[in-house]
Design brief:
The complex is a heterodimer of chains A (about 425) and B (about 250). In chain A, about 20% of the residues lie in helices and about 35% in strands. Chain A has eight helices and 22 strands. Chain B has a domain of about 170 residues: P-loop containing nucleotide triphosphate hydrolases (Rossmann fold, 3-Layer(aba) Sandwich), CATH 3.40.50.300. Chain B contains nine helices and ten strands. In chain B, the strands form two sheets. Chain B has a six-stranded mixed sheet with strand order 6-7-8-3-9-10, sandwiched between helices. In chain B, strands 2-1-4-5 form a four-stranded antiparallel sheet, with helices on one face. In chain B, β4 and β5 form a beta hairpin. The longest helix of chain B is centred in the C-terminal third of the chain and has 17 residues. The two termini of chain B are about 30 Å apart. Classes of the chains: A alpha/beta (about 425), B alpha/beta (about 250). The interface between A and B is medium-sized, with 24 and 29 residues.
Chain lengths: ~425, ~250
């Protein structure tokens, strides 16, 4: 008898949570995972997951004996390490005063689950699967009025072929606190489903830097849900270069007045890679600003997707929402999709968006060649400048070099193939 | 042997004849001015010489010191000593002026078999040349041409010319968009580089620039060909009677 391959992963998720009680958050979540999103669903039309339903993947049982020693990239940073999706205190640093990490119990986890389920990430596969299968939800709290200058470096490692990993991190910044978090995704798994819930309380400020450089066969379906209170700032930059398929989806809810959000990103895609930056920004109250700059460089037969939704509620007057995406194609077989989506229900707002997809600018290329730069060198200079530009405006100064080097590594993959 | 020799150049753009058998010889130590009305083919000529894609000759040939340019890409021509000062210098966001200049200069030096300049030596040289061109240090630190005024862009072009020490420079409407003071600075910069071993071709609409950069020869370009050549007095004739009279007479 033919078995229904479509149900493989769904069944293995159900098996994974079989010992839990019916009303546990894991069971509730697993009950909601009924299928992979269909390409008929608008936000998954350009990023299809059909392949996953044909793979034999099971959720990982973390191995707490595995060790990893990838080094810190910054002086004085606090390392938080996840291996196989599980937080590893033994491989992490001691936390600076005013901040602490704890593993949530059932009750707190259930609350966290409901926050996701009340958001528009409720049907995201990572929401349901990772709440089912995460080893635990880890919460990082920064106390009121605590400003931590040294970076937090969160490193996600481990995983294996045909296994899925499910790190879940909840970050709460209390009033007037601030941190900078640098996350690196370096998994070896076939499927990675990171969850992140961020709550920024009054006047809290967070800089977030995410570098997606998982194994070249990996699928990474990252889901991030962020809530901003009055006068809070969230400044996020994602660099996507790894995996065969990486989608970073962020939903940001601007719930308090005078908050400020930057959701910038770069994707660097070569060979058969598929990279997707999907964002949804909900301006629910007046007087907030949001800004997005997204850039992509594509070679080979790669595909890039940027989907950016901005919703301005009827009461959200004086909203300033800007969105700009640009992609450069270095190969005839690469594809870049840009889908801005503005839903504006207020009348006194400034919202703008622009999207371009094209080749390297002809005039600029000729100008450089006319100064003696070879075509290869000229293209390199222009693409590098294209990335430097956005990195300089998105990333805090002391991390710019690091991000730029990471970007150059991704770029060299494309350039070696195309130029 | 002429430094630059254009022989019966023919060029089409979008199926339309633009250059129709144009010939010109430029020797070392000479300054030639090419004047012509709009649409006469002036900018096409400069792009063709610099080797822009899409501006390849259909007939005829161009030689730089006896070497055919037809198989050379724009960058090879530049390294060989051909320089084009752009009518509209292109902005390069994110490309720092100093590193751009240094790489350009070093690729030229490498071609000439000279030692490449290290950072310090280069900065010293660049500052020296820049101060003569009234180009502020701060401008070199900015991205190439980004946020520059019209005058600053042209001064930066001539600064590049001074640093690259080309054999032949094509100045494409370098006077456009310049006020009198800026025109004088730019012209002084160009004149300072005139010597017995190089040559300059000035392409312009107006006689005005030629008061400052005095040419040895003036050529009138019309409908894809040089219809008249002469000395500096020819430019004055254009100024007085316009192009129409010359074109009708030809």
């Amino acid at each position: 008898m033919l078995h229904d391959v479509k149900d493989n992963y769904i069944n293995s998720v159900k098996n994974h949570v079989s010992q839990f009680e019916e009303n546990s958050f894991r069971k509730l979540a697993s009950n909601d995972f009924k299928s992979w999103p269909s390409p008929r669903e608008e936000t998954w039309r350009l990023s299809r997951l059909g392949v996953l339903s044909r793979k034999e993947i099971t959720p990982i049982i973390p191995d707490f004996k595995k060790t990893f020693s990838s080094k810190s990239q910054f002086n004085g940073s606090t390392i938080i390490r996840f291996v196989d999706g599980a937080f590893r205190k033994d491989l992490s640093s001691k936390l600076p005063s005013g901040s602490f990490l704890n593993i949530l119990g059932e009750e707190e986890s259930l609350k966290c689950f409901h926050k996701f389920k009340d958001s528009n990430l409720k049907d995201h596969p990572s929401t349901n699967v990772s709440f089912s299968c995460t080893p635990s939800i880890v919460k990082l709290t920064v106390e009121k009025d605590v400003n931590i200058r040294n970076f937090f470096e969160i490193i996600y490692e481990g995983g294996e072929d045909n296994l899925s990993v499910h790190p879940a991190l909840y970050i709460e910044l209390k009033d007037n606190s601030s941190i900078t978090i640098i996350e690196r995704f370096n998994h070896l798994s076939s499927l990675i489903m990171p969850l992140q819930l961020i709550e920024l309380k009054k006047s809290a400020s967070m800089d977030s830097l995410k570098i997606f450089s998982d194994n070249q066969k990996s699928y990474n379906l990252s889901a991030n849900c962020t809530f901003l209170s009055d006068k809070s700032n969230y400044n996020s930059f994602s660099l996507i270069k790894g995996g065969i398929f990486t989608r970073s989806e962020t939903h940001a809810y601007l719930k308090g007045e005078n908050c400020n959000l930057n959701l910038n990103g770069v994707y660097l895609s070569s060979k058969n890679q598929h990279h997707d930056l999907t964002t949804a920004i909900y301006h629910d109250v007046p007087n907030c600003t949001s800004k997005q700059i997204v850039r992509g460089v594509l070679g080979g037969k790669s595909t890039g997707v940027f989907q950016g939704k901005v919703r301005v509620a009827p009461d959200a007057q004086k909203t300033d929402g800007q969105q700009m995406s640009r992609a450069i194609l270095l190969s005839e077989n690469a594809i870049a999709n840009a889908k801005p989506e503005l839903e504006i229900y207020a009348d006194d707002v400034v919202c703008a968006h622009g999207a371009t997809v094209g080749e390297i600018d002809d005039e600029q290329l000729f100008y450089l060649k006319s100064r003696g730069f070879s075509e290869t060198k000229a293209k390199q200079i222009l693409i590098t400048a294209f990335l430097k530009d956005i990195i300089n405006v998105s990333v805090e100064e002391s991390a710019q070099n690091f991000v730029f080097k990471e970007a150059e590594l991704g770029l060299s993959e494309i350039i070696s193939e195309e130029i | 042997m002429p430094l630059l020799e254009i022989k019966n150049a023919e060029l089409k753009l979008d199926g339309k004849d633009i250059l129709k058998g144009l010939s010109l010889s430029v020797n070392k130590g000479e300054v030639h001015a090419i004047m012509g009305p709009n649409g006469s083919g002036k900018s096409t000529l400069s792009y063709m010489l610099a080797g822009r894609d899409g501006y390849e000759l259909e007939g005829g040939e161009v030689f730089l010191e006896g070497q055919s340019l037809s198989k050379m890409e724009a960058d090879e021509r530049a390294r060989s000593g051909l320089f084009l000062a752009f009518q509209y210098p292109v902005e390069l966001p994110g490309v720092g002026g100093m590193s751009f200049l240094r790489e350009a200069v070093n690729s030229r030096r490498k071609f000439l078999g000279e030692e490449e300049l290290d950072h310090l030596a280069f900065v010293k040289e660049a500052r020296k040349v820049a101060s003569k061109m009234f180009v502020k240090d701060e401008m070199l630190k900015r991205a190439v041409n980004v946020g520059f005024s019209g005058g600053e862009k042209k001064r930066f072009e001539i600064l590049q010319m001074a640093m690259l020490k080309p054999k032949i420079s094509i100045l494409d409407e370098t006077d456009s968009g310049l006020d009198v003071d800026a025109l004088k600075i730019v012209s002084d910069g160009v004149n300072a580089q005139r010597n017995e071993d190089n040559a300059i071709v000035v392409i312009t609409h107006y006689q005005r620039l030629l008061d400052y950069i005095v040419p040895d020869f003036v050529h009138i370009l019309s409908d894809g060909n040089i219809i008249k050549s002469g000395g500096p007095e020819l430019a004055l004739e254009v100024e007085k009677n316009g192009y129409a009279g010359l074109i009708n007479a030809a």
